[in-house]
Amino acid sequence: MNIKENLLKVQENVENALTRSGRKNETINIIAVTKTVDVDIINEGISLGINNIGENKVQEIQKKYDNINDDVNWHMIGHLQSNKVKYIIDKVNLIHSLDRLSLAKEINKRAKAKDIAKDVLIQVNISEEKSKFGLKKEEVVPFIEKILEMENIRVKGLMTMAPYAENPEEIRYVFRNLRNLGYEIENRNYENVEMKYLSMGMSNDYEVAIEEGSNMVRIGAALFGKRTY
Ligand SMILES: *Cc1c(COP(=O)(O)O)cnc(C)c1O
């Protein structure tokens, strides 16, 4: 495994997907998904230019946090239990997995106690796969309206995970639907709600996701090799 080569390849694919979709001048936030990856390797990646890392478990963030070089943004991309919010509230820059009211309340409470506003994305289960977390598409607007008065939460966009597909063309609709939902929310002009980020696309499907408007991709295996858990 050569992280440098992998990173260059991903960056090249990202640029090509942007060009194909007529968005040449835009930038895509590449979140390096570092779950199960050792800190030495993560730090090597950071020295090569990775500046966003994503983890899906609170415990893993706690374990690695002090040993990761400073200049990096942390992203919580996995399912988040309310009782663990307190451990990461001042560690992660963006929570991608807000999917229920009880979690919103807890994030708001913990952020308020630290006198910060926490940036979050709302996770949407576009494909309605049973195994996936996230709100259904039609639940998102009512959900946002319920959390509007939570002053220490800032909604910055939407996140989705597409089902695995051998051919990513089969899941293009997932990304398109999330983008359209983002437009719909944007048009409602809610105060303190921005559709700045669409977090969609993983190793297997990020090029299609970018073609459909993603500006934040979460890439693990394509950078660090296949996980063996
Ligand atoms: C593991 C994970 C990824 C990255 O998956 P790869 O296929 O390794 O790129 C992206 N998003 C979430 C939420 C994940 O848990």
Keywords for this entry:
9 helices, globular, binds pyridoxal-5'-phosphate, single chain, alpha/beta, 229 residues
What topology does this entry show?
Blueprint: H1 3-20, E1 29-33, H2 39-47, E2 52-55, H3 58-64, E3 73-76, H4 85-88, E4 94-98, H5 101-113, E5 118-124, H6 140-147, E6 153-160, H7 172-186, E7 193-199, H8 206-211, E8 216-219, H9 221-224
Parallel strand pairs: 1-2, 1-8, 2-3, 3-4, 4-5, 5-6, 6-7
The structure holds pyridoxal-5'-phosphate (PLP).
Any overview of this molecule?
This protein is 37% helix and 19% strand. The model has no long low-confidence stretch (mean pLDDT 97). The longest helix has 18 residues, at 3-20. By secondary structure, it is an alpha/beta fold. The chain is globular. The chain is built from nine helices and eight strands. Strands 7-6-5-4-3-2-1-8 form an eight-stranded parallel sheet. It starts with a helix and ends in a 5-residue tail after the last helix. The structure holds pyridoxal-5'-phosphate. Pyridoxal-5'-phosphate (PLP) binds next to strand 8 and helix 9. The site of pyridoxal-5'-phosphate has 14 residues, from strand 8 and helix 9.
